[in-house]
Structures are given as structure tokens and as C-alpha cells.
């Protein structure tokens, strides 16, 4: 014996509403169609499903049990429709986002938190990676969105990149570092202290080499390498070491009063931090909603960081003197 699922749904509707006419109205069907279904179902099981002559209609014990199965099917169908509506509106779903470690920890994760306060139905899965890793993960569909710094020359045809924040690096140290008490800061002062190396594969590695080359410094003493953002911060606080950090990261940590920015102007990279996606991604309204939120958050962050940067009294080293000698680009 084979029971058709939608027959059970109609049976459940009759039990729920107490009548064939009411059930037909609830399901958007005709009365005759529902009556025919109940008749077919009774013939198939060989037993009556409703007590004769009762109004509202009262199910027999067998009818009640079959009606419970139909009710479960009806509930699942309604849940499925609700999931579809929520997905299409962008209020339900999953977004997989990857990004460079320091930015994700200090800048992006708070943005995700504020996003989910308004969109609790969206699950966000965050991962880490440098530019080459993120490109591969986007291509293979492992992530939907990447937050990464890059230059325009690095982009591929199947990717689109929206720059949101200019790259700007600073020299960072613990809040009580001796250099923060020095009035006349010179480039040579940074030679007297050990350094924290950027994470392997990070663009900050190349940035550090460019800084040393431009400032005429052959090498610095590297004492600590490979740490996460939290471990680097804790190391800076416990030592007199120096590190290169993105300005936006240092700005995001300002309220903790754990690290300080050494106001020495240094060479800056020609790239931007932004959002990278596939040119033709599969439909993911929740992903588009998250990207829109990040876009707004980064716009506000950019204004705040630029204002903060103007308030710092930068000590101009050899790099600035050389740039002023050459004039504007």
C-alpha cells in the first residue's frame, strides 16, 4: 500500500479546521478536490477516517494518527517556504568570509558582530589566509568573500575587488616604550630596539624591508616571529620591541591603551584593503547583505582613521625629506 503524502496533508487540514470546506480554503483547493482525496484515502486504507455524522468533523483513532503524519508534512512544507523567503530576502543563510589575520581580528570581526546583531539568522564562518590563499579559496568556492589588501596589478579576470581603505602602516610599540618619551625622534632611534617580524606571507614582510631600505637601515634585530595579533600585542607590552602594524589595526586597538604609535613617518605601500569576490558568484543574498554592511562600516572607519592620522605629529625622517625634494608625483 502506498500513501500519497499530499493526501495526508489534506487529511490534517480537515482535522485542523473541522470541515472539508474550511480545509479547502486553507490549502487553496476546491471543496470537491479535498472530499475526493478523503474518499480515496479511506478506500486505500480500508477503514473510515472520520466518525460519521459529527460536526465539526471528528477523526477516528486511525484518522487521528494519519492526520498527525500529515500535520508534520504540512509543518515541514511551511518551514521550507519560510526558509526560501528568508534566504531570498537575505535574512537567513550562511556566509563564508576569509581574510588576512591582523585585519580580521582587529577590524573585521567587530564589524561581523555588529552585522549579526541586526541579522541573527545569518551564520558567518570566518577563516584566515594571505592573498594567494584567499585567491585559491575564492576560485574553489571555499569562501564567498575575501577581505584582503592588494594592488590593482594583482587582480585576475574572474575576480572583482572593491578598495575600501588605503593601506597605511605605522611603527607600533608598548604603551610605556622609551621612544614615546623622546621629544626629538630620529630614524636612528629605532635601531636601538628589537623587532617583531610580520607573519610569513604577509605583505607587511615586504613593507618592513622597504622601510629599512628607504631609511638606509641594513638590518634590525628580530627577536620574535610568527605570532597572532594577540600574542604580538602581549609581546610588545612586555618588551621594548617594535613592530610594523596597519594603522587601521592600531586605531581599532586604541581604547585598550596597550600599544602606542611611534610618530615617525615611514614609506607607505601602494595598495588598498578591500573586498574581493568572484565575478560571477552563485546567488547568496546573505553574502550581499554582509558585503553592504562591511562597505558602510569601512566608510566610517576610513573617515575616523584619516582624522586620527591628521592629529598625529609625525617626525619626518629621510623618506619624507627625499619625497619633498622630488615634489609631488
Automatic annotation (TrEMBL):
Residues 1-60 form the HTH lysR-type domain. Keywords: DNA-binding, Transcription, Transcription regulation. SUPFAM superfamilies: Periplasmic binding protein-like II (SSF53850), Winged helix' DNA-binding domain (SSF46785). It holds the Pfam family HTH_1. Coiled coil: none annotated. InterPro entries: HTH-type_LysR_regulators (IPR050950), LysR_HTH_N (IPR000847), LysR_subst-bd (IPR005119), WH-like_DNA-bd_sf (IPR036388), WH_DNA-bd_sf (IPR036390). It comes from the Bacteria. One of its GO terms (molecular function) is DNA binding. PANTHER family: HTH-TYPE TRANSCRIPTIONAL REGULATOR YBHD (PTHR30419), NITROGEN ASSIMILATION TRANSCRIPTIONAL ACTIVATOR-RELATED (PTHR30419:SF8). Belongs to the LysR transcriptional regulatory family. This is DNA-binding transcriptional LysR family regulator. It comes from Rhizobium miluonense.
